[in-house]
Amino acid sequence: MPRGIGQLSSLERLSRFVVAKDNTVCSGLGELQGLNNLRGELMIVNLGYVKNRKSEFMAPNLKVKQHLQSLALEWNKDGDDSEGANDVENDEMELEALRPHQNLKKLSLEFYRGVKFPSWISSLTNLMFIRFCSCKSIKRLPPFDQLLSLKSLYISGLTNLEYIDSDGGSSSFFPSLTRLFLFHCPNLKGWLTCLRNDGTADLPRFPCLSILDIDNCPNLTSMPLLPSLEKLHFSGGGGKQLEHIIKMIISASQSSSSSSSSSSSSSSFPIFQFKDLMIQKVEDLNFCQSCCLTHFSAKSDYS
User: Which Pfam families match (predicted)?
Assistant: First the structure.
C-alpha cells in the first residue's frame, strides 16, 4: 500500500490492505490507525511481513472501527515472513492485538500459526460467519457459547484440530448455526460431550443446523445430534464413518420427534425433513443403498 493512506481520515471503503515485505518504502499497519470511518469489508494480508510487531499490531486500533462488518486477517503462506520462522508466541500476541469492534459480523483467519485463538473471539456476540483456514497448529476451537447469532462456520485445513469444545453448561452448541463446513481436517475426532450439573454426560446438539458438508476428515466419528439436518455432503472418508454419522442423524430425529413411540427402531424411523444426501470418494461402503432410502423420505435426493 502507498504511504500516506492513513491521512484519508474520511475514507469509508478499503477492501484490501497489503503489508509489503519492505515497509520502509510502503505503508505499515499504522496507516490504519486513523481510518475509523471504514465500513463494509476489510482484508489485511501478509501479516508475517510486519516488523516491530508489538507496536505495529496495536497501531490499527480495530476495536474502535465500529462500522466494519467483515474482517479477514491473513498471515503468510508456508511461513514466508520478513524474519524467517515467525514463532507461535508472536502470532498469538499479534492476533490478540487485532481485536475488532463488537459490531463485527464476519471473521476470517488464514495461515495463522498460533496454537490457540484469541480470547476476544468469544466476546464478538454479533458474529454471523466465521472462517478458519490453514491454521495448522490449532488443536481445539474456542468456546462459542456466547455467539448466539452465528449462522455459518467454515473450517478448512486445520490439520492438528482434534476436538471442538463446549465449555458452557448447555448441551446446545451454536444455537443459531445453520451451515457447517469441515474440510481437510485429518485429525479431527469430533465434539467433546457436555457434562450436566450432576456430572453425567450429554450429547451436544446443533438444533438449527440444516447443511453439513464434510470432506477429508477421516477420523471424525463423534457427531452431535442434528435434529434439523436437511443436506449432508460427505466425501473422502470411510463407510463406517458415514454410517455412524447417518445413525446420529436418525437418533436426533427420533429423540426430537414428539410423535415417535418407544417401540420405534432406528432401522425404520424416517427423517422427514431430510432432502439431500451426496456421497463421494468413500472407501469400504458396506451399507447398502436401500438402507439409506429406508431412512430418507420420498422427497430426498440420494446420489
Answer: LRR_R13L1-DRL21
